[in-house]
Predict the 3D structure of the following.
Amino acid sequence: MKRTHIILLVLVAAAVTIIVTQFADFSTYETFASASKEPGKQYHVIGFLDNTKPFEYDPVKDPNHCTFYVKDKAGNLSKVVFNGAKPTDIEKSEQIVMTGSMDGDAFRCNKIQMKCPSKYQNDQVVVGNAS
Amino acid sequence: MEQVQFIGEHLAPGKLGHFFAILSFVMALFGTFTYWRAAATENKDLASSRGWLLLGRNSFVIHSAATAGVFFTLFYIIQNHYFEYFYVWRHSDLSLSPKYLLSCFWEGQEGSFLLWSIWHCVLGLIVMFTAKGLESRVMTVISLVQVALASMLLGFYFGPDIKIGSDPFILLRTQMQDAPIFSQANYMDFVKDGKGLNILLQNYWMVIHPPILFLGFASTLIPFAYTIAAVWKGEYKQWLKPTLVWSLFCGGILGTGIMMGGAWAYESLTFGGYWAWDPVENASLVPWLLLVAALHTLVIYKATGRSFIITVILMSLTYLFVWYSTFLTRTGVLGNTSVHAFTDEGKALYWHLLVVLCILMVIAVGLLIYRWKGFPRIKTEEAINSREFWMFIGSFILLLGAFQISITTSIPVWSPLAKAITGKDVAPPADVVKHYNDIQVWVAIIITLLTASILYLRFKTSDNKTVLKRLGLTAGIAVVLSAVMAYTERIGDARYITLLFGCNYTIVGMIYYAIKVQKAQIKKLGAASTHFGFGVFVLGVLFSSYNKEVMSINTMGIMMDFGKKNASENARESMENVLLYKNNPVVMGEYTATFLGDSTAENDPRIFYKVKYERRDTVTNQLKESFTLYPDAFVNAKGMEENSMSPNPDSKHYLSRDIFTYVTKAYDPKMKKDDTSQFKSHKVHEGDTVFTNDGYLIFAGLNPNVDANAYPHQPGDVAVSATVFAYNTNGIVDTLHPVYYIRGQYAYQVTDTLKASNLYARLENIIPDDKAVELKIKQSAADDDYIVMKALIFPYINLVWLGVIIMSLGFFLAMVNRITKKEKEKAATA
């Protein structure tokens, strides 16, 4: 075996190890119910905005605070708290994907992705602080 | 059914365009066949091979002309606003300014494929005249890819379910057959305007960025085609130079195109940065990384005869990843994970792209296996102090880095499989940026450390003493520089200090190399400047992201728990938006920001929000600096939903940093409610104070000498004016002089206003018994006039742009050097 081959093997092994350990970063799509089993852990939840409930956003009180209600794919309703300005057109969204964690009875998220029935081809909007 | 005779349609250009599309497809197919025959008969029957070659050339020229025909026909119908065509109706409108007409091409699926195809034609024609002995084979590959692209524009149906390609000249009434309006002969009377171009694309970066990026994408075909041709022919000398030249061209153009996309994102999107590790961005980055790796192994092969196999593999992977990227971004598989996943074509395109990808893969892998035994190999080991040894490792690291990006980007592709096995529905990392940064920082560290070291080494073997001396000197200077930078820029994280050292090491090393080794000969500086640019670029990335600072921290409101390590980080996370009332200064970092109002310009649907920044000396309160930013937004623009806005940032550029501001929420001035605020009565004595929304007023007394111009003066009037000083938080702003006069039996008032504060003051009455006056003050509710905005500081972001520019110039310098070298050698042999 050549020296290069040995080094390649070592590099590949190292890369595989690093990549596999980074799998822990990967989040999962959950429902409110399954996300509440591990409060504080970051999950993705897909759901639909409940327009019958009020959407609260008062920039005068706090420009970084929205509360609203979302029905997840299992049909369960939950309160959602979003830190940020109210996402444009959220009332018209067909579907929203929220990144955050369960905290008591509310889902706290810092990133919202919406699918809007808009005319645009790139019809998704990300809102939030991907920091 | 009775055939309706429609009125007002222009059907001729559509028919012509569709004819061109079919011609283009047929000629590409014919070109592939004839070029293939030319290649196959090359060694047996030279005369017939020559004949096939001429046929191939002609068909490629006709194919190119036909593709250009499609392009110009589509441009023609867009320019003439023929809204009977679905593409025109959907992607443009009458108000579109001419400079954005071309942008309609890249908003739509068909237009983008067309643009891609056009670039292939241009590059293909150049290759046709320069490829010489490899022409037949290279052009077979190019023509084959053109078949795939031309088929995207066919729009043929096989039965009700199978559709191949999508015709850009389809009529609105065909596309929307079910709408009852299209049963009327005069439906064009109702279709007066199109839906318009996505406002995000109405930006100058979007005019120049897509053509460059597509040229970059298109140019990856050429090194791939040469490589396939070489393997096919089993001859590995002739392809070297053209492949090297084209790879350099491609590296420069694709790199520029990607970072132009970053510049567009920085200037007009509001995720706050130039790079977000978005799947669409990654999709173009991965092929570039692979190409750069391939370029380096190709250089190794040229110099030493080693690393041939990995070069072929990397070249093939580069091109396969170009198509895989197209597959990811165009078919909607990315679904929930991307900001700009294009979705509409769906199933048909999904299979179409998958088939193309498979064909290309079969060709590449098949040839590799077929020729495996005959590949050039060198049995001996390379020396540890040789350039090729470390360059190979560097290329391999790039490959691994590209794989990592690709694995995470492809989560939506493999997650169904993972779900079947583990039962878990895998989603992208909650913090995507951190995920990529954590790994890619190591790739960057290794690459920057290798870069300078490798250029000091020679191929085959080096003089250890010289190398170590140079390395030691470079490292010494870099350590000092890094220590100073880490201290002044407050960089504490060990990983980032290492990266900082890596950058400085590369930068210092390249300067030394350019001056000492290459004797500063411009022609030879390609490699040095590309790597120097890379070092500067990574340094810029490091500074601008590590010390990216949010200025707009809201200090009131509700704090939320975001699972951050400590309270201050949580606070930061939840407070990045700040509410600015009109004329109400808010402290942001070392600045005070004041929202001064909004303005609109004619023929521009945007609304500009005027935000003044001031920096004062903390002790003397002296104004040190003042500037105004105009972040803007499309508010309720045409085609947008009601109450929606699409903001664009504005930045103040300094040499050392940018102050980046954008509006996240604002009222719509067009919809502003009527002024509902009421006058409030205040009984005041001389010297009394009345508080307002943004300051206070002091009544300084009455003045009987009223300026005759202050009100419609008539003889016999008895007039008096009040002197009212208006203050805001910075001090006195203005003096108001409301007038009170008696004409005949009646009392009249003239209101004075302070426009900047929306303040109205009226001297309502004089109460002599009390030595007081009644002032009526009205201030329009400030709640109507506010914006919610974010402000960020990007330190040294100019290094990012500078690095990219130097890097691209380096690529072209290297390319020019390779081309001219070729001519010299030719002259020598002649």
In short: Chain A has one domain: 27-128. Chain A touches chain B through 60 residues (CB under 8 Å).
